[in-house]
Amino acid sequence: MAAPDSITSYGAPLTTHDLLALGQRFGIDYRFPEAPNRAQPAPCVARGRVMDVEINPSLRVTHSDLDVLHAYASTSRRSAAWFLSVILEGRIQVGLGHQSFQLQAGDAFSAHFNEQTGLEVFQPAPQRLRILNISILASTGPLSSLPINVAPPAAPMLHIWKVPQLLHHSLETALASNWPAERQRLLWQGLALQLLAHGLPAACLSPNDEEQAVSFPSGLSHRDQQCLERLRQQLEEYPNQAYRLEQLASNAAMSPSSLRSKFQRCYGCSIFDYLRHCRLAQAQAYLRKGYSVQQTAHACGYRHATNFATAFKRAFGIAPHEVHNRH
Q1: Dihedral angle at the C-alpha atoms of 63, 100, 151, 80, nearest 10 degrees?
Q2: At residue 30, what are phi and psi to the nearest 5 degrees?
Q3: 277-305 pLDDT per residue, tens
Q4: Where is the HTH araC/xylS-type domain (predicted)?
Q5: b (16+ CB within 10 A) / e for 223-258
Q6: How far apart are the C-alpha atoms of 116 and 135, rounded to whole Å?
Q7: Coil, helix or strand at residue 306
Q8: In terms of Cα–Cα distance, which of 56, 297, 59 is closest to 192?
Q9: Domains by residue range for the chain, with CATH
Q10: In this structure, are residues 12 and 47 in contact, taking their beta carbons and an 8 Å threshold?
Q11: What span, in angstroms and rounded, lies between the C-alpha atoms of 176 and 170?
Q12: Which of 100, 107, 278, 298 fits as disulfide partner to 95, beta carbons 3.0 to 4.6 Å?
């Protein structure tokens, strides 16, 4: 376990000099295409907060929540076994070698790079940009005992993927929590492993891992898994609708009791717990866009704003009006 001082926060504002100093520490070259003459005082590039959590010497989690005032670009100059990045809000452009992608909220990428082929990232402005990064700096030590293969590929690689809604909700819940440092490290270690499980390219899994990745939970047929996945996607895409267990079971060609037990077995939570996760994740996005608490409650399928506020605070640890007021 990391030392107690391994959770570090950097406050606003961030000037060109601040980013250059951070880059020197982490092996990143920063460039500021919009910066004025260097003879003038260092301009403020962004305002916000950066949190850095060192889980152990090989594994680091970094969360940045910034209002980007001037566009900037970065190139990583150090080797990384794996680097995973989740875009929670905003947009970036990422490139490695001849590959280049435009990413937005809900997108993620996993990359392996070295000193010869660095990872290129461009952050446009103005925008609110919230990003969560997972860095694996070595493939030996505590990570070698993981049930998934984290050894990097032989050549640099850039893999683009989507963050599952339930995992996205868990990340937002963790970021809204106010736990002591030791508990936060445990929490982020668990979430980092989940991100690795989703974000490592299938081609980089060992044969045993790949076999596990496509197997179904015990007692579920291929047809069951297909029906359950269609149902899960429906709940995720249309969480504001009114759902009844009987109707969902009929649509899945199962009995209500069978659907209830198979969904739990497949996804690790009940159908209506998952629906609540989807509604609250959607609600958080609406509040950040400026919707009122009342509007958000109704848009997400809650009949009463008080019930919505109770569920939201239980999930995120803060009242919905606090999120609304921040934005």
Answers
A1: -50
A2: -105, 145
A3: 888 888 888 888 889 999 999 998 888 99
A4: 229-326
A5: ebeebbeebbeebbeebeeebeeeebbeebebebee
A6: 18
A7: helix
A8: 59
A9: 4-204 (2.60.120.10), 222-326 (1.10.10.60)
A10: yes
A11: 10
A12: 100
16/21 Cα distance (integer angstroms): 9
41-81 residue pLDDT tens? 568 889 998 888 888 877 889 999 999 999 999 999 888 88
Between vectors from CA 49 to CA 5 and to CA 131, what angle results, nearest 5°? 100
**324: nearest Cα among 288, 294, 298:** 288
Q: What is the pTM of this model?
A: 0.62
Which residues make beta-bridge pairs with 54?
60
Residue 177: name the closest of 276, 314, 11 by CA. Answer: 314
Q: In angstroms, what CA-CA distances link 135 with 23, 82, 84, 94, 250? A: 15, 6, 6, 16, 45
Strands 120-123 and 72-76: antiparallel
Main-chain phi, psi angles of 290, to 5 degrees: 105, 5
Q: At what angle do helices 271-288 and 256-267 cross, to 10 degrees?
A: 60
Q: Where are the beta strands (DSSP E) in 157-211?
A: 157-162
Residues forming a β-bridge with 157: 112
Amino acid residing at 122 = F
Q: Which amino acid is at 268?
A: G
